[in-house]
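Design a sequence for this backbone.
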């Protein structure tokens, strides 16, 4: 699948402000600065669609984009921003939890992790919670171009090991670089397959 028309639709500060759940929806989440905006722009072939922010953690809104008038792509706020206040973090958690638990057309959540880092507790705990709530998710490794060839495989293997301490089966894993436009076909083909099911 190729995206030909991607357009910003609306920003919501509450789940009940989101557009009607009238088509399949795919949401993207990850810690601040993980490369979420860059990945969304790369998938949509549009360098300015999602803002790549210089102030991480600032956006606390659910952003909906219409893709080819067929499905919604959702940019969720980044989590785990150390400089956010306790109240901000609480509000963020409430917004995201409510969205994730009640959005009936959410087909799959893309959880982004920076391929350079060791498995982080905050990400693993978040994935665990998705399991508890029964929300389907996949993992997207970002910024793979920043790794040496030798590190690529070992970092992914380490991550899988950490996952297998909590999960019996591994989720689908995508390896991407927004810089090199890697992983786009794999992610879009996956979405196409789910849409056709
Ligand atoms: P967000 O806060 O998760 O939306 O992250 P951004 O997309 O704004 O990216 C954070 C920083 O990482 C920016 O400086 C990006 O240029 C950089 N970045 C994002 N994706 C990649 C990538 O695939 N490769 C490289 N080398 N840098 C990236």
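Sequence:
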């Amino acid at each position: 699948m190729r995206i030909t028309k991607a357009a910003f639709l609306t920003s919501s500060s509450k789940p009940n402000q989101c557009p009607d759940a009238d088509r399949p929806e795919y949401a993207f989440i990850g810690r601040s600065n993980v490369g979420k905006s860059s990945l969304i722009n790369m998938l949509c072939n549009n360098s300015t669609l999602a803002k790549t922010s210089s102030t991480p953690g600032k956006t606390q809104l659910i952003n909906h984009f219409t893709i080819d008038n067929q499905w919604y792509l959702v940019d969720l706020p980044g989590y785990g921003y150390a400089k956010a206040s306790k109240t901000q973090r609480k509000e963020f958690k409430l917004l995201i939890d409510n969205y994730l638990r009640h959005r009936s057309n959410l087909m799959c959540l893309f959880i982004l992790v920076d391929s350079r880092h060791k498995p982080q507790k905050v990400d693993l705990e978040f994935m665990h919670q998705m399991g508890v709530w029964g929300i389907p998710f996949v993992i997207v490794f970002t910024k793979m171009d920043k790794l040496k060839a030798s590190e690529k495989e070992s970092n992914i293997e380490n991550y899988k090991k950490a996952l297998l301490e909590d999960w019996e089966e591994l989720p689908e894993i995508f390896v991407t670089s927004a810089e090199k436009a890697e992983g786009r076909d794999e992610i879009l083909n996956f979405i196409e397959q789910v849409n056709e099911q």
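The mean pLDDT is 92.
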